[in-house]
Amino acid sequence: MTTLSWPTALSRDVSEWQWVLRNMTLTQASPMNQSTQTIELPGARWACSFSYGMLEEADSALLEATLVQLAGRAGRVYLWNFARPTPRGSAAGTPLVKGAGQTGNSLIIDGCATTITGWLKAGDYFGVNGELKMMTANANTNGSGETTLTFGPMLRSSPADNAAITVTRPTATFALQDDAQAWSVTGRRLSFHQSLAFIETFG
């Protein structure tokens, strides 16, 4: 099944919005003194839920058609954080991964505009290798257009050298968390009181 792109028009009509990061950790307790150690695992995933109030007929028809296309949990759709579709930093240039084999919570990139303070800022989102990340510290570029991105959650796989960095509406792949979706109509306008709940999916 083709992965859908969520209609941009519907991202602006949301009345309530929740964005969640479901982390993966492993905690081990000592049998001797119950001291604990917790480590981060590379399986964190984003989840979100949102709902709509009264929609005009054109937007309600678009929403209904999108939900039918998703076929419950079988479908996949690209979603981004509707509350922050663009970064607060300048993010100018054509950013690319600099060097293969990078792992963890940091990534060296180049191709950025040179000598920028706050090229990306803490809380900004970016996409790489099909993964959606949030900056946890500001990133400043040097005179060669290079910087190191510090983010969470950690990379699930190493991006290739020169892989593109997406800074405008960066997405991850999501699926509905429920097979049943319902809507009601008042006059000629749709009222969607049930929240749509999505969970990030990856192979």
Portion in beta strands:
35-45%
Number of domains: 2
Q: How many E-type strands?
A: 16
Mean pLDDT: 92
First CA to last CA: what distance? 15 Å
Largest sheet: 6 strands, mixed
The side-by-side strand order for the widest beta sheet comes to: 1-7-13-16-5-2
Coarse morphology: globular
Order of helices and strands: EHEEEEEHEEEEEEEEEE
The helicity comes to under 10%
pLDDT < 50 stretches? none
What CATH calls the topology of the largest domain is Phosphorylase Kinase, domain 1
- CATH-scheme architecture of the largest domain: 2-Layer Sandwich
What is the highest CATH level, the class of the largest domain?
A: Alpha Beta
Structural class: mainly beta
- Radius of gyration from the alpha-carbon trace, in angstroms: 20 Å
Commentary on this structure:
The protein is mainly beta. It folds into 2 domains: 4-82 and 172-200, Phosphorylase Kinase, domain 1, CATH 3.30.200; 93-152, no CATH class. The chain has 2 helices and 16 strands. It has a 6-stranded mixed β-sheet. It has a 5-stranded antiparallel β-sheet with strand order 8-9-12-11-10, with no helix packed on it. A hairpin with a 2-residue loop joins β10 (125-128) and β11. The longest helix is centred in the first third of the chain and has 14 residues, at 57-70. The two termini are 15 Å apart.
What's the SSE blueprint?
Elements: E1 4-5, H1 8-11, E2 14-22, E3 25-29, E4 36-40, E5 45-52, E6 54-55, H2 57-70, E7 77-79, E8 93-97, E9 106-112, E10 125-128, E11 131-135, E12 147-152, E13 172-176, E14 184-186, E15 189-191, E16 196-200
Parallel strand pairs: 1-7
Antiparallel strand pairs: 2-5, 3-4, 5-16, 6-15, 7-13, 8-9, 9-12, 10-11, 11-12, 13-16, 14-15
